[in-house]
Amino acid sequence: MGQYSPRTLRFRREGDTVGGLVVMRQGEMHLEFIEAVKKENQDVKSAFTWARAKITYDRSSLIKEAINTLGENIFEELSSYAW
């Protein structure tokens, strides 16, 4: 099979490695979806104690920061109209 097989499995000396991708549907609530994926990841880890599962790209901190920035900007705009 070589280093990469058609099914995107990678074989190493330590064992088999499998990659996965989670896709969110349009219109879903981002933070709720991310939290559900994190919970599912914990369930997988507890069910398969011999396996390692880790999230490599998590946008939740980026989303929270954007929401905070938006809130601050709205507050600044509203407070400028109050004077």
Question: Layout of SSEs?
Answer:
Elements: E1 9-11, E2 16-18, H1 30-47, H2 60-82
Antiparallel strand pairs: 1-2
Report on the structure:
- The N terminus is likely disordered.
- This protein has a two-stranded antiparallel ribbon with strand order 1-2.
- The chain has one domain.
- It has 83 residues and is mainly α.
Structural class: mainly alpha
Helical content (DSSP H or I, runs of 4+): 40-55%
The biggest beta sheet reads: 2 strands, antiparallel
Mean pLDDT: 77
Radius of gyration: 20 Å
Strand content: 5-15%
Cα shape = elongated
When the domains are counted, the total is 1
Please mark out the parts with pLDDT under 50 across 5 or more consecutive residues, or reply none: 1-11
Quickly list its features.
single chain; 83 residues; mainly alpha; two-stranded antiparallel sheet; 2 helices; 2 strands; disordered N terminus
